[in-house]
Structure formats: C-alpha cells, structure tokens
Amino acid sequence: MHAMQYSFTLPADYPMDVIRDRVAGTGHLLDDWPGLGLKAYLVRERGRDGSPVNQYAPFYLWRSVEGMNAFLWEGAFQRPTDDFGRPAVRQWTGLAYEEGGAAGSPARVAVLRRQPVPEGGALSEVAQRAVREAGRLAAADGTLLAAAVVDTARWELAHFSLHAGEAPDGAEGEVFHVLHLSEPGRGLLARGRQW
Q1: CB 146 within 8 A of CB 153
Q2: What is the tens place of the pLDDT at every residue in 157-179?
Q3: Class of residue 159 by CB neighbours under 10 A (exposed 0-12, middle 13-18, buried 19+)
Q4: Does residue 192 form part of some domain?
Q5: What CATH number is associated with residue 35?
Q6: 44, 78, 131, 151: most buried, per Cβ within 10 A?
Q7: 195, part of any domain
Q8: How far is it, in rounded angstroms, from Cα 110 to Cα 145?
Q9: Where residue 144 falls among pLDDT bands split at 50, 70, 90?
Q10: How far apart are CA 119 and CA 39, in angstroms?
Q11: 84 in any annotated domain
C-alpha cells in the first residue's frame, strides 16, 4: 500500500462552493481507477474545525505503484495542475491498514495526524506502535478505516482515518470534510501490518 496527498491552499475569501461543484461533477472519474484503493476528496475551510486555511487536499491509498504512476503521468493529474498549479505530491509507504466498525457508512470526516519518527529508538518498535495505533483508531465508534504510513525521506509518520460523523472527541491532527469517496479497490487493500 502507498499513500499520496497533495494540497491546494486557497485564498481566505475563496468560494469553497467552486471546489464542491468541481468534485460533484468530476469525482466519479476515479470510481473505477485501476490500482486505486481509495481517494478521499477532502477540504478544510477557514474557521471550521480549527482550520486556519481554505484547502482542497485529496488523500489516496494505492494498491499499486502502477496505478499511482498512471494517475500522475497519463493525464488525470494534469487537470488540477492546469487549474491550480503544480503542487508538491507527498508519498508515504504503508505500515498498516484496518477497516473500522462503520465501514459500510458514508464518509463524512477525515483526520490526518503527522508526526516525526523519534530519534534514538528502534525503528521496529516505532512501526509496531504505528500498527497498534491504526488498530486503535479503526476500533473507535464511527470509524470507517484507519491507516498508518511513513515517509522515510522526512522520517514522518502519518495516521489517516475516515469517520461517519464528526471528528472523534480528542482527535489529534488536521480535520477535513469528505466531499466524495472513490474506492474501487478498497476491499483489496491488505489489512493489518504491511510487511
């Protein structure tokens, strides 16, 4: 499993209905993309859920590098870059993936928590804690899924979770609202630890 995210931070007075309409009109185009586990079309709005910015920031879980590369290099990614500019595309390697008890419910909210991998400890212990945390997040009421991923260029660990209602009490990280969820290969994503 591979994770990917890019974001477009928009002006404070940007009409976010433009993004909602865009996703409503084109979100379905990835509903059957080969190699895609899921794409969550995410937004944050300035002043809502503690967000300091307006932002469109889709998050992907890929089953295959080939599917991710086809998305990036065969034209699908060209449209948002033409409209908003070419963003940095963050990529993480999967450590764990778990389905939650609300797996059949519509996704309403996503939480993304990023943190540095601490220096000095055993990497195997860091990875095991990340696996356990993915399981803990997935077990929370109203959770559809949870993933733990790592960027070894930055030594950054990220936990991503989708929820059927509001963000869970005490949720740590950036809170996004889900406009659409494309999930052609979600059922094929390997569960548990990824090694």
Answers
A1: no
A2: 999 999 999 888 878 999 999 99
A3: buried
A4: no
A5: 3.30.70.100
A6: 44
A7: no
A8: 10
A9: very high
A10: 32
A11: yes
What confidence score (pLDDT) does residue 167 get? 83
- The yes-or-no verdict on residue 55 having pLDDT over 90 is yes
Give the pLDDT confidence of 76-107 residue by residue, as tens digits.
999 999 999 999 999 999 999 999 999 999 99
> How crowded is the C-beta side of 181, counted as CA atoms within 13 Å?
23
CA distance 10 to 13: 8
Secondary structure of the chain as H, E, C letters: CEEEECCEEECCCCCCHHHHHHHHHHHHHHCCCCCEEEEEEEEECCCCCCCCCEEECCEEEECCHHHHHHHHHCCCCHHHHHHHCCCCCEEEEEEEEEECCCCCCCCCEEEEEEEECCCCCCHHHHHHHHHHHHHHHHHCCCEEEEEEEEECCCCEEEEEEEECCCCCCCCCCEEEEEEEEECCCHHHCCCEECC
| Structure tokens that stand for 155 in this block | 């030594």
Q: How many domains does the chain have?
A: 1
Predicted TM-score of the model (pTM): 0.96
Domain contains 173: yes
Q: Using CA atoms, how far apart are residues 61 and 14, in angstroms rounded to an integer?
A: 28
Cα-to-chain-centroid distance, residue 57: 8
